[in-house]
């Protein structure tokens, strides 16, 4: 059988800019072009320089996304957590303090204009008010999507949590008899990342294409050198806490979990790095959601269901993957947990960072 070939219509000249923007994104600033009344307003500025102190005494230059309205907690790495409720309509005023940037609301799926993927829309000049709706409770994150390999590595990201309408302390999970809700007592965030310090000496536009609007795909205007395909991390961290090289065990309360026997722990895990990360916990865990979608819960649940990971059964996440796990320890003790970091190309294990879940 011959498959008929349907010829493509010629592209009208006035539309050609829409195709060029994949390689030469325009900049844009100002109000949202299609605003509705928001229920929540937030603000974020980028970039702000941040020195990440290492256990060995030196530090790594990072870039962070700041909350300019929070003098006390606005400057931290990872950038300050955004917490919303399902159904919230958000206006996020994003200021580009140095150069141009974007914020991509990863997994939220706003309209292209509001999704912060510069190559499909625009990069933010002075400032822009992004608009989106938090449609589905779950674990998400936000990050800059300009010169993405570098800007994400530099630290321009933070968690974005959408709670069910009841608010914090309740998670959406498969449980028809409970209206698909479960209460938790302790919430923990594991966000492993790793740092190649050579990349942290680069400029905002390192190895980006030189934009010639008259010939946006000219071969010579693309960089053919650079090191952003060559990742050699030597600092390994979890949720902003770097592990010591000699004894890579993290007991910082931002990472190590503490709960009482009989309590329910909700563990939100995000791979915010470029390695393949393998997690092993010494406690049984139930995986209830992946990538902002609760397993088994309508309307997306027809093809999935939660499952139990018996203690010491490893699971792996690649870049940007998010899992939600419920732990219900009943016996007091200190339970080890670890993250192993494997190189994205060679598969070689680069580091193992340990932490713990303490059950009182
Ligand atoms: Cu950026």
Structural account:
The N and C termini lie far apart (70 Å). The protein has 360 residues and is mostly beta strands. The strands form six sheets. Strands 12, 17, 19, 20, 21 and 23 form a six-stranded mixed sheet that branches. The protein has two helices and 25 strands. The protein has two domains: 16-167, Immunoglobulin-like (Sandwich); 231-359, Cupredoxins -  blue copper proteins (Immunoglobulin-like, Sandwich), CATH 2.60.40.420. Strand 2 (40-53) and strand 3 (59-66) form a beta hairpin. The model has no long low-confidence stretch (mean pLDDT 95).
Number of contiguous helices: 2
- Quaternary form: single chain
> CATH-wise, what's the superfamily of the largest domain?
Cupredoxins -  blue copper proteins
Give the overall silhouette.
globular
Considering DSSP H and I runs of 4 or more, what fraction of the residues is helical? under 10%
Number of strands: 25
Radius of gyration: 22 Å
- Poorly predicted residue ranges: none
CATH architecture of the largest domain: Sandwich
Distance between the termini: 70 Å
Query: How is the CATH topology of the largest domain named?
Result: Immunoglobulin-like
At the first level of CATH, the class of the largest domain is Mainly Beta
* Secondary-structure element series: HEEEEEEEEHEEEEEEEEEEEEEEEEE
Largest sheet: 6 strands, mixed
Provide the fold topology.
Elements: H1 16-20, E1 27-30, E2 40-53, E3 59-66, E4 79-85, E5 89-96, E6 104-106, E7 123-133, E8 138-143, H2 148-153, E9 157-163, E10 170-172, E11 181-183, E12 186-190, E13 192-195, E14 235-238, E15 241-242, E16 257-259, E17 265-270, E18 276-281, E19 285-290, E20 293-294, E21 307-309, E22 315-317, E23 322-327, E24 333-342, E25 349-359
Parallel strand pairs: 1-7, 2-5, 4-9, 12-17, 16-25
Antiparallel strand pairs: 2-3, 5-7, 6-8, 8-9, 10-11, 13-14, 14-15, 17-23, 18-22, 18-24, 19-20, 19-21, 19-23, 24-25
Bound molecules: copper (II) ion (CU).
